[in-house]
Amino acid sequence: MTTARVRGTVVATRRADKVEGARWLLVEDCDQSGKGRNEFLVALDMVGADRGQLVLVTQGSSCRWTRRTDDRPLDALVVAIVDQIDQSGALTWSAGAADEDSPGASARGRT
């Protein structure tokens, strides 16, 4: 899995995935502190993530292991919204401490 920041949505009216109620998100790969790496991909959102939130993205065949995505043509899936990241006992990112002036900070992450 990787961490990524939701940067926007991707609209596709004709879809082969046939996953009801899910939407496509444009996400930017991030490091453990939430800093973007300027590498983007499109992932199917399964958790209702909002623009600016830090999320966990899984890629490859594991995207097709849920009941809703079984045998669907998917390569990237948003599976969680990140609350905190701790590295070696130090908090490197927290949704509650996100700086509202930082690029992509979500309304939920503002204090």
Q: What can you see in these coordinates?
A:
With 111 residues, this protein is mainly beta. The chain has one domain: EutN/Ccml (OB fold (Dihydrolipoamide Acetyltransferase, E2P), Beta Barrel), CATH 2.40.50.220. Helix content is 0%, strand content 43%. The protein has no helices and seven strands. The protein starts with a strand and ends in a 17-residue tail after the last strand. The C terminus is likely disordered.
Layout of helices and strands:
Blueprint: E1 2-10, E2 23-30, E3 36-45, E4 54-59, E5 76-81, E6 84-87, E7 90-94
Parallel strand pairs: 3-5
Antiparallel strand pairs: 1-2, 1-4, 2-3, 4-5, 6-7
Summary keywords:
mainly beta; disordered C terminus; two-stranded antiparallel ribbon; 5-stranded mixed beta barrel; OB fold (Dihydrolipoamide Acetyltransferase, E2P); 111 residues; single chain; 7 strands; elongated
Describe the structure concisely for a colleague.
This protein has 111 residues and is mostly beta strands. The chain contains no helices and seven strands. The protein has a single domain (2-97), classed as OB fold (Dihydrolipoamide Acetyltransferase, E2P).
**Class by alpha and beta content:** mainly beta
Number of domains: 1
| Cα end-to-end separation | 28 Å
CATH architecture level-2 label? Beta Barrel
What is the makeup of the main sheet? Answer: 5 strands, mixed, barrel
Strand order of the largest sheet: 1-2-3-5-4
